[in-house]
Design goal:
It is a single chain. Helix 1 runs antiparallel to helix 2. The protein has 2 helices and no strands. The longest helix is centred in the N-terminal third of the chain and has 29 residues. Helix content is 84%, strand content 0%. By secondary structure, the chain is mostly helical. It has one domain.
Amino acid sequence: MSNKVYDILKWVIAIVMPAAAVLYGNLGPDWGWYNPQLIVKTITEIQLFLGTIFAVSCYSYAKGGKG
């Protein structure tokens, strides 16, 4: 994985996904958007999954593994 791809993934997982969840969770009820609680829960569960996989991969790479 190149440094650029790594930086983009890190930014999406750490910044974009939580911001999207908060935005949808706060605006959804006011605007009548589809099931805000379910959408926020889904976004955060996907973020947790990706963050875990990403962290394990980075740890493995730092230890000299193949990722």
